[in-house]
Amino acid sequence: MNTKTSVISQEALQQQFAFCQKIEAYWHDRGITPTAYVETYGCQQNEADSEQLRGLLSQAGYAIQGGAEGADVVIMNTCAIREHAEQRVFGNLGALTHTKRRHPGQKIFLCGCMAGQDHVVQRIKRSYPHVDGVFSTHHLWQFPELLHRVLTTGKRTYFVEDEAGSIAEGLPQLRGNTLKAWVSIMYGCNNFCTYCIVPYVRGRERSRQPEDILAECRKLIASGCKDITLLGQNVNSYGKDLGCGVDFADLLKAISEIEGEFLIRFMTSHPRDASKKLFDTMAASPKIAKQLHLPFQSGSSRVLKAMNRHYDRETYLEKVHYAKSVMPDLVLTSDVIVGFPGETEEEFEETLSLISQVHYDSLFTFIFSPRAGTPAASMDDPTPKEEKNRRFDKLCDLQNTISERIHHSYVGKTMRCLVDGVDKDMLTARTEGGRLVRFPGDHSLIGSYRLLTITGATTWSLTGIQAEKEG
Known about the structure:
With 471 residues, the protein is of the alpha/beta class. The protein has helices at 10-28, 44-59, 83-102, 118-127, 143-153, 198-202, 210-222, 248-256, 276-284, 301-306, 313-326, 345-358, 385-408; strands spanning 6-7, 35-40, 63-64, 73-78, 107-112, 133-135, 157-159, 166-167, 180-184, 186-187, 206-207, 227-231, 263-267, 291-293, 331-338, 362-367, 414-423, 426-431, 436-439, 449-457, 462-466. Helix content is 36%, strand content 21%. Strands 3-2-4-5-6-7 form a 6-stranded parallel beta sheet, with helices on both faces. A 5-stranded mixed barrel has the order 17-18-19-21-20. Strands 9-12-13 form a 3-stranded parallel beta sheet, sandwiched between helices.
C-alpha cells in the first residue's frame, strides 16, 4: 500500500484537459454530440466524485443523460463497504451487456472503491468483457486520458496501480443541485477499523489547503448555494497532515464567517477526534447546523476494541453528553453494526442500552459484512445468520420507536426550514437538523428559508404548514 500523498500539478491537470479537447474534436469530426451517464453507489464522497466525472465529461463535449440506454459512455462509480453493495454492482454491470448490444459503440467504465480491490479488477477482466475500462479513486483525475485511449485504440484499459493518494485541485464539477453542495475537505483514512476496507481503497488521510476550501465555499455561496456539507472519511482529523495550525474546528469557524445566508453541515465525524473545541464552535455559530453524525458502531467496549475504534463506551457517552449540553437542540445520528465477529448477546444488549440512553434521532444500521483483506474478515464468527437477523430486527424496532417519539415532539413547533424540492403535490423542506418536512405551497418558494409550523409526524418525516408570520 503506497502511503505517500501527492499533489497533482497544474501542468498534469492541463494535460488531462487537453485530452478533453481531443475527445471533443473526435466527436465533432463525426458530427455527433455524445451522451454520458454516471451511476453512483455508496456514500456522499462517491457523489462528490461523480460530480467531478460529470464535469470532465461535460468539458469533453458530452451531454449528461439520466440512464444507460443509448449513452455513448456509462460510468459505474462503486462502493465496497458491504458485500450486498458489490453484488448489486456486478448484477447491474452484467445487465449493461444488453444496452451495449443495442448500442455497440457504448463505452463502459467501472470506478470507485470497488476498483481499488485487485480481486474485483481480475473478475472484471475475466467475466465482464463488455467493460472497456477500470480506474481506482486515485486515478479519477486521469479519466480523460483513459477515455481517449479507449476511444482511439478500442482496447480495454486499466488505471488501477497502487498510486500515492492524491489531491487534484481545479477539476471541473457538474453539480446536480444549486441549493445544496458537497465539498470534500480531505480524502482517505488513517484509522484502519478492522471491518473497514476504506483505507485500503482510498488511501491515507490527506487534507486540502484551507484557502482552497474557503475559495470553493465562497464561490458556492455567491452562486446561491444555501446548504454546504463538508465531506471526509473522518473530518475531525482535518489538517493534521498539513502542519499549518488549522484544525477542523478552525476551518468550520472560517467558513461560517463568510457573508451570506447558508448553513454548514459535515460528515463523517469519528468519535476518537471529536473535541470540545468542535462542539463549542458548532454551538457558537448560527451558520453551523446543529446536526451531528457520530458513529458509535457498538455499545460494548470490548467489541469497540476488537473493531480498533480507539474509544470505549464511556468516552463516547462523555462526548455525546458534552455536545448535547452546549447544543440542547442537537440532532444526533449514528451508525451501528450488528453481529460483529464474536459479539455476544450481552454485548448486543449493551448496544441497545446505549441507544436507549442517547436517544438518536435516527440510525444507519448494518449487519456485519466481511470485507476481503480486512482483519475482521478472518476473525472467528460463530453467531449464525438467523441470530444476527433477529438482533438486527430488535435494534431497528427500538430505534424506530425512538425516532417516532422524537418526531412527534416536533408537532406544534415552528421551525426555520430550507425549501428544497417537490414530492408529488407537496413541497419538501429540511430543518436545520436535516429532518424532512412536507408541506403545501407554491413552487416559487423553492430555494428560500421559510418558517414552518409542524402539524404531523411519522417515524421518517414531518408534515407542516407555513407559519402565519415570517421572521
